[in-house]
Amino acid sequence: MFYLRLARGYRVPDLGRWLLTALAAAVVAAFLLRSLGRAMSDPHGGTDALARLLWCLPPLAAVAWFAAVAARSVPARRPERIAGLTAAGAGSRRIRTLIAGEVALACTLGSVCTLLLFLVLRNDIAGPSLAADLGMGVPLPAAAPVTLLALVPLTAGIAAACAVPANETLPGGRTRSRTGFGGLRIALPLGLVVVGAALELIALRPGAAEDGRPIHLPAGLGSTSTAALGGWAASAFGLALLTGPLLAWTGRLLAVGRPTPLRLLAGRGLTAQARRLGPPLAVLTLAVAMVLTTIRYWIGTPDSADALPAVEACLVLGCAAAAVVSRLAEVRTDRRDVTGALLRLGAAPRLLLGAVALRTLAVGTTLLLTGGATAALAAAGLR
Length: 383
What we know:
The protein is 76% helix and 1% strand. The protein is mostly helical. It is flat, with a radius of gyration of 24 Å.
């Protein structure tokens, strides 16, 4: 009943976030039920059944990531809701539990809708092409779909609860976030990038001997060597961790010397928000680089494309993009007071729009660098 009352005060962004969470959970539930149907159709599948379940982990992780970022933005974007809950006697743990419950409820709704569709299609409605995916002709254990589908709201709810800090209870009571990066935070990704690139170059050098342990990649991507795959993974992880520091350095570069007001506003704003914008932008850039590399390989190798990885890639990209939009909305809400103060001091709206455009250009250039390097290393490993 509480969540129904809460939904009455939803705005369009809140309703959109809730529906996107339910839709993403419904797609993940479809993947899980498909793996269950395949396992029932082929009870002696063995390794194939485990592989199908492992294919469900990337979209499940994407939904959990989006749920965490969206829940993290609720206290900043809806301070009146948090203030009302606090005035009603809810503490920080209670507020975190309520936000996590809201996310879990949306995921539960999406999973239940998928389960109902699954049961309807099993009632001799689906054609022969879907019989194996639905496990038609085999009795369905009641505990199996419930256990599988419980993973979706449970994972998303735990991610949402862990994402909301305990000290974010009241507007104005939020702790000031750090804007810098420590030496270890910069040295670790740099080391991963250098070591990973060196390892991949050694594995791909002309005349290099085969290591004897080729890895057959999923999604019809052929095979590669263990060293090349390990080197790319280390480099990609290092570039993702380096996204935040690169954004901060780009902001400082914009404000270097004697900057104009446009450069000063853009550079200081980017430096201040680099720590918060880095993780979601890094995830989105990594996902886009992997998708583009896969599409390039599929185009160069006919009859190697697979429909299931393509659908999962769309879901992962959608969740990553939604997480970035949610974080940008949170940042915009936090900067509302600063923007209002600048306007009261006489700053022209055109100046603020120009700062946003320059900051966007700087962010795009940085992401093009990291994403291009990630895609180039991946493409080299697939040759």
